[in-house]
Amino acid sequence: MEFATKAIHAGQEPDPTTGAIMTPIYQTSTYAQSGMGEHKGYEYARTGNPTRTALEACLASLENGRYGLAFASGLAAESAVLSLLSAGDHIVSCDDLYGGTYRIFDRIMSRYNIETSYVTANRVEAYEQAIRPNTKIIWLETPTNPLLSLVDIRAVAEVAHRHNVLLVVDNTFSSPYFQRPLDLGADIVLHSTTKYINGHSDVIGGALIMNDQSVYEAIKFHQNAAGAVPGPFDVWLTLRGIKTLAVRMRQHEENARAVANFLTEHKRVEKVYYPGLASHPDHALARRQMSGFGGMVSFQFKGSLSDVDTVVRRLRVFTFAESLGGIESLVCHPASMTHGSIPREIREARGLNDTLLRLSVGIEDISDILRDLEQALA
């Protein structure tokens, strides 16, 4: 099946008992067992739930993976990956990444003597140079959050596997519609399903997809043992959102391209970050590695922090809020919101300063989106 068909059907056969087309919400905490060790595949809902099984199968299919695991949040999924590490291990990570991920590395994993080295996201050679004998994971976001740099997944995968290191790729910004890292050599794909996967800003969730059975079994053990699993209603909402993923992503990208072109020409804008622009330093890689450029646009504003506050207060179609990937347009100030946990000196050294705004371009009529930006920037 092609992508849009899999999004609607993969893992979601009609209910065998009733014939219901939509996967039912199995709102139960436990399951009847006929005898010692005899049951119908489910024992306890933390361990497994039929609604969750459908979501995990669908996500695996969309990423061309063998195994999918759903979690209560994107950060819960990240924690499950990090459960593969032991005290004294080492992580190599791209330097431009979600503030919550930095917070886990810096304030939680460091307590267990697990150190993280950060390298410039789009410099492949830097990853190999940073590898140590105790390195166990290379961690990528591509495109990165919020500066939208690209990482050559295939090239970094070759580096990782040459050194017997797992490659983890956060694919949240692209969604599997525009990029499938497992096909390029990644070992684990991570999603905050809160974002484009669900697409309607009404669920918190996360997911991991992989091909290696031993990696799957290790993370599956953590999923059950630590218990950060999503509830069946959240899973059902995510499944419902996935069904329109293909059509939503096409519209997100079409609108984002128009927004990026508009901002590039605006006198109040200093710099635009969007891999779909020919001027983007990683544009050629984006064309080669992705089937589209996504719906995220960041831009550097000419003015002060006070001017930025004025702009976000004037916006009417865009809502000033955390998160991304919903059908509605959102504007975020990373320095004080999503990346506020990163110390100022580190943020600014990476190019993330107080006048950067990140747009999650929605699927509203593009004329309304552009008029809203024009009046707010005026």
UniProtKB/TrEMBL annotation:
At the top level, the lineage of the source is Bacteria
Q: What is this protein called?
A: Cystathionine gamma-lyase
GO cellular-component terms in the record?
cytoplasm
- Cofactor(s) demanded: pyridoxal 5'-phosphate
Tell me its family.
Belongs to the trans-sulfuration enzymes family.
User: Pfam families in the record, alphabetically?
Assistant: Cys_Met_Meta_PP
Q: Which UniProt keywords apply?
A: Lyase, Pyridoxal phosphate
**Does the UniProt entry include the keyword Metal-binding?**
no
Organism name: Ktedonobacter racemifer DSM 44963
